[in-house]
Write a structure and sequence with these properties.
The structure is a homodimer.
Chain A: E1 6-7, H1 17-25, H2 33-50, E2 55-60, H3 63-74, E3 80-85, H4 88-99, E4 103-108, E5 128-134, E6 136-137, E7 142-143, H5 146-156, E8 161-165, E9 184-188, E10 199-204, H6 206-212, H7 224-232, H8 242-257, H9 260-281, E11 291-292, E12 296-300, H10 307-318, E13 320-321, E14 323-324, E15 333-337, H11 344-360, H12 371-390
Parallel strand pairs in A: 1-13, 3-4, 3-5, 5-8, 8-9
Antiparallel strand pairs in A: 2-10, 6-7, 7-11, 9-10, 12-15, 14-15
Chain lengths: ~400, ~400
């Protein structure tokens, strides 16, 4: 039997074919009128996609590079920063801020929980330089209440910088940069925007640009003030990842034609709800008590089965790549992505594969085959009826 | 008339089609056995290509990011470093070392000149932490005597680190990492290795790994110790630029089948000599008094003609992209690349285009048409005869 390789990991994810083609066709020099127009157009499309008036900067790096850019441009050694961490990427913020000498105070929750305004109240003062948080924690499949966190932090200190790692959260759950007054919001190419890894972007508020004037952290490759001057001219301070810029431009064109970011979020949320409904029908528990993200669903392996067996089974029997748990969650949970270029049929197929793997592992009765798929189908019918009623 | 777009700038350069195809086909998750094998195989091929026993690290960044990695891993604030600068990229080393608090002493030569051992003698002491230099200075088309510089520096201080920006020099002029005992040697994907920008690599000596243990510069995204642990497992500390890794693997396969780095260097040197012979026949002066590089040739525009007119003419009339001078050299010189995926026929065509542009600009007599091409052809015949004699 043929087995098509399908990526269902929360990044890198399924690739948009026309964006791949645009990347492969790219051969322009980056200091030409054509490329300047492409770079400027891509940044404008990114602004529209993100729904922000803030400038959006492109960097040749993976998302962690843009996280570093936010820290080294916005902060200084000894700055007091509050990190909200309930997963592997929260820990990345901690490591990063410590690497640049910030005085880090961490608010920790168990893996799988979500942060809200109550977790910053009383923690942010006039001496707090910044709050660092993920929109969606990819390691656990939950999202944090960025709107509430930002409002509570801002009430305590109007000048505090809010740094949001939106790498997995952008285009998968609501995230309103301007309405929520977020200072640095970071995204990566290999997530909802459907292209390969290697290009990062971040939106930068006016407050953040002002903060850079007094920041004393050393920086060169990720110096955003220098990038701002270059990118205003359609260039970059250092050689850009030209192919990925072309790919991103093509992907944003596709996304705009399909309802923009709101359309992507609605799509991811539908697939996430379908996956949760299927899991419930199959007796699989969602991991953690936090607010489920649209980007991915983290499920616990049935008792007595290592989640790695599910990952391996899907891979070997069907060619589908899902993610195991990370760190202490390895072997206990598995994670299925919905972010970016996935449609309902992809999800149906994966659920059908999952049922078969569970049956062969002795963790699902044969009589239950199709139960997860049916739950997802039922949800699709309701969604379709809802859309019909609206039309 | 059709006009094919041809890149003759010293990066990004002409792309190898099969590497583009490999990039477009890449859709693997980076934490899979397949990708680990690809990453490990690419690093091994890079080692062979560079001819070094040193470990070679890959980074999702442009070449300047790997220059930063060398500085922040090998050096500490207040370290005394000697920067040899005679062009725009020498100035980049200066800016970078200063950004991270090093005590920079610069040895400056006019643009277009080359450094040799005499420029470091008496400048390196037991207190000098590092010497920073370009193998080839792309802004002026000359190469520096890295072998002599390294030997002189090492005689004065056996532990001094030698940081070589080989972004343009690798695969275009001789560069022997192990024999010359070079500590950090940096390369970029968009140069001799024939693929798009966005992937950087650097070789790291044992002395450099030891130096990292005491370096106090802050670092996170470019932390090479962390990368070393990950890359030993076929992974990277942060999401890799998967498509560019696949492209690099394919390009190195092509390069190995065509004589490896030595074959590339011989090819670039032949094209460079052909271009210089053609320039002489056309009355064009090579820029500067330094040692000409194999990577590119910098020529002065004829008196009374802005070099931008030559750049524009080649672009508009024939679709060829060459480079203007940078900074103070803009308008005075133009630069033609030979690095990577160029063959003799590409060079012949460009020389023919250049003659036509000069005739239309009134800077070459019509009777001289073909004189540059003929000089290049004559050189080709001599090279072919030489190869015949060797065979």
């Amino acid at each position: 039997m043929l087995k098509k390789e399908r990526l269902f990991a929360p990044g890198p994810t399924a690739l948009l074919p026309q964006a791949q083609a645009a990347m492969a066709a790219m051969h322009w020099h980056h200091r030409t009128a054509e490329f300047r127009k492409l770079l400027t157009g891509t940044r404008e499309r990114l602004q529209r996609f993100l729904g922000t008036k803030n400038e959006v900067m492109l960097l040749a790096a993976s998302g962690s590079g843009a996280m570093e850019a936010a820290v080294v441009n916005g902060l200084s050694p000894q700055d007091r920063v509050l990190v909200l961490t309930a997963g592997k990427f929260g820990e990345r913020w901690e490591q990063l801020a410590k690497a640049y000498g910030c005085a880090v105070e961490s608010v920790k929750l168990p893996y799988g929980e979500s942060f809200g305004p109550q977790h910053v109240q009383g923690k942010v003062s006039a001496h707090t330089a910044a709050v660092l948080v993920q929109a969606t924690e990819s390691s656990t499949g939950v999202r944090h209440d960025i709107e509430g966190i930002a409002r509570a932090a801002r009430q305590a200190n109007p000048e505090v910088l809010i740094l949001v790692d939106g790498i997995t959260g952008i285009g998968t759950s609501p995230l309103e940069i301007d309405a929520w007054d977020l200072d640095f919001v970071i995204g990566g190419s290999q997530k909802a925007v459907m292209i390969q890894p290697g290009l990062a972007y971040l939106s930068v508020s006016e407050r953040a640009w002002r903060a850079m004037e007094k920041s004393r952290a050393p920086r060169f490759y990720f110096d955003l003030r220098r990038e701002r001057k270059s990118q205003a001219q359609g260039e970059t301070a250092f050689t850009p990842a030209t192919g990925l810029v072309a790919a991103l431009h093509a992907a944003l064109e596709y996304i705009e034609a399909n309802g923009g970011r709101a359309g992507l979020v609605a799509n991811a949320e539908l697939l996430a709800r379908a996956t949760r409904a299927a899991a419930a029908a199959l007796g699989l528990r969602r991991f953690g008590g936090g607010t489920p993200a649209g980007a991915l669903t983290a499920l616990e392996a049935p008792a007595g089965l290592d989640s790695g067996e599910i990952v391996k089974g899907l891979r070997q029997k069907f060619g589908s790549v899902i993610a195991n748990g990370q760190g202490e969650m390895k072997g206990k949970i598995f994670r299925v992505a919905h972010l970016g270029y996935y449609d309902f049929s992809d999800t149906l197929a994966l659920l059908g594969q999952l049922e078969l793997v569970l049956v062969q592992a002795g963790k699902l009765e044969k009589a239950k085959l199709g139960a997860g798929v049916r739950a997802a189908q039922t949800l699709w019918l309701e969604a379709a009826a809802g859309q019909g009623a609206e039309a």
